[in-house]
Design goal:
27 strands; 29% helix; 492 residues; globular; Rossmann fold; 27% strand; GMP Synthetase, Chain A, domain 3; five-stranded mixed beta sheet; 2 domains; alpha/beta
Length: 492
């Protein structure tokens, strides 16, 4: 696809200039103002000698300024590199060394750390201080679809970060495909609590501009804050990871979530106990599946889909294809588990960190996940391909154990990891977070015994309060591996 892409922000600024585009509790910005601020920020980059094609990192929490920076970089042709605010200066240095970063833009909170990176830095306030006085909104702003636009470091399931380079075309077709299933209306307002250094967070900005609908921005997730924000900010669309939804359900005694147009749940497994609670409250849940490498969503449920389909991730969105394949790369029949392969306009232009470059939408990308697609096209994600261990010649699916554990009354969450074993090769170890009440290992094992063969039972069940989370709300498997390294080491 070589046709230039018209900038959705410029189109929204021309067609709905006075509609509120961005807001937080302290200020708001119309589409015309967002557009003018983006133009002014491009002028700041030019004045500072920053050239198209160069990488510019951003270090800060979600904010209106961050949203301005995103579209300024996209238009000017910079490779915007959002940094995970939960990492260390050493982590950021390692990541940026791979991309020859030209500049770091930091908000006030992170300016001291930005200076320590040893790369020229500037405050976010200063870089976007200039707002263009003369903006001819009748002039189209067009962008090449194959131009690198965004570099996001994704840790995946291993905890080792790799750089994923997304193009302007990836972002455009990701948003356009979702808009066909979940059409935006003028009354719609997204709530941005997923961090902008995550594809699930920053992609909200592109979707909102494409649909000319609003985004209310919060610096981070807090369940009480979200519930207090819903009504005054007129939120209709709420993207979350399951751990966030769990916190909201626990705090939402008035069932405020039921009034939303859609709660989009992705980024991790949506366990059975959480599904039951959400169904009991009749929430408008849309489950989804995607990765950083696929510019966010690949599949999603439709609003008309019944709650019994919440155990799936929905059906394939436009501009994407999925194949469930054998280890040899051949398609398998419907209802058969295999590797989830994706191709289409949303798949990342290239990957860093020495991984194979892939640039062509017609090539299949191996997500590393296992899944099953039924005859109606609904995808059920079965877990990472590396979640299958071999123990004494028998395959054990760690995600199957996790799913059963999270269905046990009194269990809030569970992670199952592999322990090296000299006799069996590998054995499962379970880490369980109680939901509040005390829960005994004996009762957990009773429920496992009714649903799993004995050889699949975890050798150990370790109670952890709470299970560690990554910045995006997923269970932090890498942190558990590090904390319990002795337990997970080779057992004589």
């Amino acid at each position: 696809m070589n046709r230039l892409i018209a900038c959705p922000l410029r189109i929204a600024a021309r067609t709905t200039p006075d509609r509120i585009a961005l807001s937080d509790p302290d200020r708001s910005m119309t589409f015309a103002e967002w557009d003018a601020a983006a133009v002014g920020t491009v002028e700041s980059f030019q004045a500072g000698g920053i050239l198209p094609g160069q990488a510019v990192a951003v270090l800060g929490r979600n904010s209106i300024d961050y949203a301005v920076l995103f579209f300024a970089a996209l238009r000017y042709g910079l490779i915007l590199t959002p940094l995970n605010t939960r990492l260390t200066v050493a982590d950021w240095r390692q990541q940026l060394s791979a991309v020859h970063c030209r500049l770091v833009v930091a908000d006030r909170e992170f300016q001291p750390q930005a200076i320590d990176l040893g790369i020229p830095s500037v405050s976010m306030t200063n870089i976007i201080a200039g707002t263009a006085a003369d903006v001819d909104r009748d002039v189209e702003v067009e962008m090449p679809p194959d131009r690198d636009a965004l570099l996001i470091f994704s840790s995946g399931s291993t905890g080792r970060p790799r750089g994923v380079v997304l193009t302007g075309g990836n972002l455009y077709f990701s948003a356009l495909g979702l808009a066909t299933i979940l059409p935006p209306g003028p009354e719609d307002v997204w709530l941005a609590v997923l961090p902008f250094f995550h594809i699930g967070g920053i992609s909200i900005l592109y979707r909102a501009a494409l649909g000319a609908c609003g985004v209310h921005i919060r610096p981070c997730f807090d369940a009480a804050d979200v519930l207090e924000t819903l009504a005054p900010a007129r939120i209709t669309l709420l993207p979350l990871v399951p751990t966030m939804l769990g916190e909201l359900l626990a705090a939402d005694s008035a069932n405020l979530l039921r009034g939303l147009k859609a709660i989009i749940v992705g980024g991790a497994a949506f366990d059975a106990s959480l599904r039951r609670e959400a169904e009991a409250k009749r929430l408008p849940i849309l489950t989804t599946y995607g990765q950083t490498e696929t510019a966010s969503m690949v599949t999603i449920l439709d609003k008309s889909d019944r709650p019994e389909l919440w155990s799936t991730a929905g059906r394939v969105l436009p501009y994407r294809e999925i194949m469930i394949a054998s280890d040899d790369g051949e398609p398998v029949p419907a209802g058969t588990m295999g590797r989830i392969l994706v191709r289409g306009e949303v798949v990342a232009g290239r990957l860093l960190a020495g991984l194979q470059v892939r640039c062509r939408p017609e090539d299949w990308f191996d997500t590393g996940d296992n899944g099953v697609m039924n005859a109606s096209g609904y995808l059920k994600v079965m877990g990472r391909g590396d979640s299958i261990i071999v123990s004494g010649g028998e395959n054990i699916d760690l995600t199957r154990i996790e799913a059963i554990l999270t269905g046990v009354s009194g269990v809030k969450g569970a992670v199952v990891l592999a322990r090296a074993d000299k006799k069996w090769g590998h054995r499962p170890v379970a880490f369980v977070e109680p939901s509040g009440e005390d829960i005994s290992e004996e009762r957990i094992r009773e429920e496992l015994g009714a649903q799993l063969p004995r050889f699949m039972h975890p050798d150990r069940i370790i109670i952890v309060r709470p299970l560690p989370l990554t910045a995006t709300g997923k269970y932090d498997r890498a942190a558990l591996r590090e904390r319990y390294a002795k337990i997970l080491g080779v057992d004589d």
